[in-house]
Fold these 3 entries.
Entry 1:
Amino acid sequence: VGGERDERLESVEHLLDSLHPEDRTALVNSLTTQLRGPGELVEGSYRVRTSTGDWRWRLSRGRVVARDENGAPLRVVGTSSDITRIKDNELALARINAELESRVSQRTQALHDSNASLQNTIDKLQQTRQQLVDSEKMAALGGLVAGVAHEINTPIGVSVTAASFLQEQAEKLALPEDDAEAATTLEPLARFRDVAVNSSALILRNLRRADRLIKSFKQVAVDQSSEASRRINLRSYLEEVLTSLQPSLRKHKVELECPHDINFETYPGAIAQVISNLVMNSITHAFTPDKPGQIHVNAHAEGDSLRLIYRDDGIGMDEATRKRVFEPFFTTKRGTGGSGLGMHITWNLVTQALGGSIQCESAPGQGVCFSLVIPIARSAPTTIG
C-alpha cells in the first residue's frame, strides 16, 4: 500500500534485487528469525531502489496466514508503506542530538577550564594576601625593634663612657708599696681598686656586646635615603663583595655566575649587605667544621627584573626552620652569640631598600637556596650588552 505502481511488493526475488546492499543481509536474517518463531506477525524496515534510481525507506508488516504440516510458513499477507520522511526526520534529529551533545561537552569543558583558572587565580590571590600580611607583620616588628634600639642607644653610650672613666680612674689609683704600715691600712682600698678595675672591664665587655646588638637592631629599619643610589656593573661589584669576604671564606669554595654586561642603578650597599649576610649565614649555620662548603651565586636579568640565586651545599633546614628563617630574633645558634637578626635584616633590605622579594627553599641534607627578584629602576634602565 502506498508508493508508485512499480514499487509494490511483487515477490521475494524482486524485493531482494531492489534492496540496498547494506540492508539485504540484516533484513533476511531478521525475517528468517521471525518466521521460524512461534509468532504470527513479522516486520522489517529497509531501503529499496525506485524506478528513478532513488533509495526509499519502507516498512513492511505481515501476518502468517498459512503453514505446512511441520509449521513452516507458506504464505504471509501484509502491507508495505513508505517511511522515508520518518527516517529522514530521525536522521536529522540524531544529527541535532549529536551536535547538542558536542556543544554541551564543549561548554562543560570550557566551564571546567574556567573554574580551574578561577580557582588558580583565587589561590594566587590568597597566597599574595598572606605574603602581604606576613610582610606587614615583619615590617611592623622590625620598625618596633629599630625604634627600641634607637631609644636605648643613648643610655648604652652613656654607660660605656662612665664604665671607661671608672676603669681609667681605678687604674690610676696609686698606693704606696714601700710603707708596710700604710699598705696594711690601705689594703681594703687596694682590694676595692682591683675589684673596680676588673668589674669595669667586665661591664665594658658586655656593654660593647650590647652596643653591637643595638647596631644590628638598628639595621632592621632600612632607610633608603642613608645611601644614594648609583650605577654599577653587577659582576664587578659582586666580585668585590665576595673578595672582601675571603678571610671568612678561606675554607670554602665560592662560584659566581653572572654576565659581564649587566649595568643598572641600585643601592649597592644593600646588595653588599645581603650577600654578606647570606654568606655568613652559610658559614655559621650550614657548614660543619670538618667539611669545606660550596657556595654558588647566579645572577641574570629577567625582563625588568634581576634574579639572584644563592645556593650552598650545607646541612639544610627542616620545614619548621625554613618557615621562620626571616623572623626577627629567630636563631638556631642562640647559645653561641647569634642574635637572630641577620636573615631578617636581609629580608628587609631586599623587600624595602631594593623593593624586591626573597624566597627560601631547603630540606635537611639538601643545602639551601635563596631566590631574590629585584626590580630594575625604570628611571635608570638596565644596560645588557
Entry 2:
Amino acid sequence: MQSPAVLVTSRRVQNVHTGLDLTVPQHQEVRGKMMSGHVEYQILVVTRLAAFKSAKHRPEDVVQFLVSRKYSDIEEFYQKLSSRYPAASLPPLPRKVLFVGECDIRERRAMFDEILRCVSKDAELAGSPELLEFLGTRSPGAADLSCRDFSVLDTDSQGGDDGDAFDFFQQQDRVEGEGLPTLDQKGQDAGKSSEEEEEEEALDPLGIMRGLLSAWSTAFPALLILPPVLP
C-alpha cells in the first residue's frame, strides 16, 4: 500500500493514553468498467505517534491523514487482530452480502467506525504492527532496515549498470574498429598504380566492364567472390 500524505493539524488527540484517534467519517463509491465498482471507506487518522511522522515533523506535532480501504482490506485486518490478540474485545464485523445497497454501505461505515475507534483506544492494538501495515506505515525499525537494504542494492545496481554501459561502448568501439579495415581496403582500391589502370583501360577502353563490376559489387556485395574475367 502506498504511504498517505501526512499533514500537521491543529486537532487534539482524544485518546491521550494511546496518542491515536481513528474514525471512519465517510465512504466513496469507485466506479469501474461497465457495471463493476466497489466502495472504499475513508479512515481519518489523527496522531502524535512518531511511527506516523517523517523527519520534518517535530515531536510535539499532531498529524493527520486519510486512507481508503475496501471491505476486504478491513476484514483481513480484523481477522489478523482477532487471531493475534484474542483477548481484545472488538465489535462484530459487518456481515457479508451478495448485493450491497446504500443502507448496507451506511451500516458498514458505522460499524467500521466503531471497530477502529475501539482499536485506537487499546494501547496494545494502537501500537501493533498489524495496524501500522493496515494504515500503510511501517515501524521505524523496519523502515531503517529497508533503507539499509535498498542502499546496498542501489550501490550494487549502479555498479552493474556502469559496468554494462562501459562494456557496451567498448563493444561499439570494437565493432567500429573492425569496420576500419573495410575502409582501408577501399582506400587501397582507390590507390591503384597507374600501370594497373592502364592495363584495365587497354582491356576495357570504354569502361563498360568496370561500370558493370562496380554496380554489381554495390548491389550484391555478398555474392561477389571473384571478379569476372575480362575478355
Entry 3:
Amino acid sequence: MLAKVSTLVAASLALCNAFDPVDGRPNVDFDYEIDEDKLKSRSVIMMIPDGTGPNIWALARNMVDPTHKKMLHIDPLFRGSVQTFSNTSLITDSASSATAYATGFKTYDAGIGVDMEKRPLGTILEAAQARGMVVGMIVTSRVTHATPASFAAHIHSRSLENDIADQYCANANLDFLLGGGKRHFSDACLAKLKAAGYTITLDKDELAAYRKTNEANGTLRMFGLYQKSHMSYEVDRIRGETNEPSLSEMTEHIFAILKNNKRAQKHGFFVMIEGSRVDHAGHSNDAGTMGKEAIEFDNTVSVVKQFVYSNPNVAMISAADHGTGGITLGRDGVYKWKPEPLVKQVMSTEGMKALFSNDRATYTEATALQKVKDLIIQNSATKKISKEWDAIFTAEVKKIVANAKYSTSKLVVYMGQCISQTAHIAWTTVGHVGTDVNLYCAGPSVFTRRCNGNHDNTHLNHIMTNYLNLDLQPITLKLRGYKPNGNQTAAPASTPIVSSSTPSTTSTPESTPVITSTTLATTSATPVTTSATPLAIPSSSYPTTSPGVSKPSTTVWAKPTLKPGCINVSVALSASELLGTRQRKGFMKLFRKYCSSKKSPIDCLYGVDVPLVLMNSFNTHEETVRIIRKYRMHNLSIHTFNQGKEYIFISNVDNLGATV
C-alpha cells in the first residue's frame, strides 16, 4: 500500500513539474542541449512598450479584469528590472534610452545612435544585417521617431526626422519597416525605396494583400506607412474611422511571412517592436487611452509568445525605455481606484481635442466651455464636471478663444486629468519619470537566465549580442572610416554625425545632408567577420557630398613597436564604465609587472566610443582575460594587436574563455 502511495505521489509531482503553473507551458531543463537546437540559427525579438512604467501594467491588468482572475500575456515572462538613466540626466528621453538598447552605450538625451561626441555607434540591427540576418521594425509612432531611429540611423538630434527618413532610403538595409510618419518621406526618398525593390503599403488592406502574395515564398521587402504622423491610438482606431492595422495585426502579418523566409531560416533575424503610443498617452495624462495602448501591446506579446514557443532558437526580450506621467493608482488618501470608468472611455483626449478644434473659429467662451464638457461626458464615464474642473476649463477656454494661435496642448492634459479623477487616478508630471522599468524575457533558457535581476539599460544590448554572437565594434569602425590594413584612418572626436538642417519637420529632404548607402549600408553578401580571424572592414569613408558630416582625419597612427612577448591590448570602455583612479593605478602596476618595458606608455586614441587606451601589457590572451575578470570589467570588448599582423576582435568578455 505504501509503495502504491509513493508511486502516485511521485507521478503527481512529475506531472506538476512538467508544466508551468502560470501559463501551462511545458517546463524545460536548463540544459543547453534540451533547450536549443544548435543546428538552427538564433533570432531575437526586442519589444519596447514606450513610456510604460511598472504601474501601467497594473493599470492594464485591472482594466482587462478587475476581478483579478486573468493575467496579462506578459506577466509570466517577468524576469527583473532595468535602470534607465542617460549620460546627461537621471530621467532619460527615448532617444538616449533606445541608443543604449541598440548600441550598448549610454549617450546624451536626443542623440540618435551616436556617442557623447556625436560620433556614430554601430547598432545591433546593423550588425545583424551585416551578418545576413533579416532585420526590421514595427512601431505605432512615426518610423522616424526616436526609438526606431536609434536602431537604424545616426544623427545628433532626434528632431531631424526628414534626415532620418533620408538615411533609411539611402541605406535600404531594412527588410521591413512599419508604422506612421509618411510626411517625412519625400517623393524622391520613396522613389529610392521602390528602386531598391521595396513595396510601399499605405493601409490595412494593402498590408493584408502583401501577406497574401508573399507568405508562401517568405519575401520581405516592404515599408508600411499608415499615417502622415503617428498611427492612431487603439481606442480611436477601433472606431473604424481610419483603415490602419493594429500593432498586433502588423506583427502577425510580418511573422506569417517571416517564418517562410529562407534567409531568416538560414541566418536568423532581429526584429524591434515598439508600442510607441503608451508614452504619448502618458504625456497627455490620459489614463484610459494609456491603459488600452498597454493592452494592445500585451496582445502583441501574445502573438510573439506563440512564435517564440514554436521556434526553439527565437528569444524575446521586452523592457520600456522609461516611465511617463508618474501615474498613481489611488489619490487623495482614499484607498481605492476604479478601472471601470477607463474601460468605458471610447475616445482619446487627443481625439476630443481634434473635434474641439474643428469649430474653434466660431466659439465664444460659453460655447467653447460647453463643447469641452460635452466631449468629456459623451466619450467617457464622467457624468458631471466638478466645480473645480469647471473653473480650470473656463480659464483655459478664455485663452483659446482670445488667441487663435494659443496651443490646445494644456486642454488635452486637463481633459485627461479630469477623466482620471473619476477613476481615482492622479499624475505627477506630463513628462518622463526616473523609475526602473520591468524586464520580461522568453525563449531558450541560455538566453532568459541572463535576464534575471536588475540591469543597466546598456546590458540588454549585451544580452542580445551575446546570444546572437554579434560584434558591434566593426560596424562602429566602418561608420567612422577606420581601415584595418595596419595603418588606419582614425576619425577624431571632432567627427560628429550632424546635419546642417535646423530641427524642423518641414525642411526639404533634398537639401538636407544624407549619410549615403556607401557609408552605412551593409549587405548579407559581405558580412562583417565576428569570429577571431583577421577583420575585413570595407574601406568606405564618409561621403564628401554631405556638408553636415565631417570627413575623417588623414592622421595615420603607426603600428606600435612591441618588445618580445608583449601584446598591445586596447580596452574600449563605455562612458559609464570608465576606470576609477584606484583601478587605473592597479592596471599601471600590472603593466610594469607583466611587460618587459618598465614604462608602459598609455596613448589615448579617438576610437570606438570614448578614447581607447592603448596598453603595452599582457603576455597572453589568457592573462588579459584574467585581469579583466579580476577587476569585474564585463561588457567590454578587447582588441588584440599581434606584432606584424592584422588586428582581430574578440567580442564580449564573458565569451573569451571559449574564444581564446
